[in-house]
Amino acid sequence: MPTSTDVTTAAAADDPATGLRAIRALRDLADRLEAHQVANARSRGWSWQQIAEALGVTRQAAHKKHARSRKDV
Amino acid sequence: MFERFTDEARQVVVRAQDEARHLRAGQVEPVHLLLAIAADPGPGGETMRAAGIDRDRLHRAVAASTDELDAEALAAFGVDLEQVRAAAEAAFGPGALDPPGTEGHLRFADGSKKSLEQALRHVLARRGLARRNRVIDSGCVLVGVLAVEDPVVTRVLRQLGADPAALRDQAAHAA
Asked: Chain B 8-37, CB below 8 Å of chain A: which residues?
């Protein structure tokens, strides 16, 4: 007997509209969480290099995306 | 421009901001004006109710089509947005998942500004009325919103089984 999780997963896989909406929502969610996590890491003294490594991106990419204020250089 | 607005029409503009903020939108879009008109006791709201547009259903349709953090779509992948929100707020404070810059005054999007201009234009084009007596009521705002043919407005109205062009004619007739 299919569980309700099976049903929702099947629905998500079958319907491109739901699937694509979910992808967009997941990206937005990740972006907002990333901003908080990076700010938190900076306030605890993490370097851009350390943050970039944790995120799996280059130091330049992490800096470009998140450095806003002058003290954040 | 607002000196020509009736109290009800002013309330629509104020309420549109609340609607936008509630929906965590970055700007006040035409669809937020439409939502505000749906709750309006005056001529704009009457026209919408006469067309069978229910405020709560409209609100749900708007929430589903404009919320970036689409709880329903996330749930289809087993992500409970409210749980994520609770965890994020526990770590980073209330509103941690809100888009940046939604506190305080919200800007009116170009489409919303154009909607209000169209409302004014509609009133000024009316004949048989002294110019000074031409006021903008909530019905005129509805005409203005529908005149700009905003894609989100068009989509949610169709979802509710309403024809945007027909609604515009009804609103223009009443206003």
From this structure: none
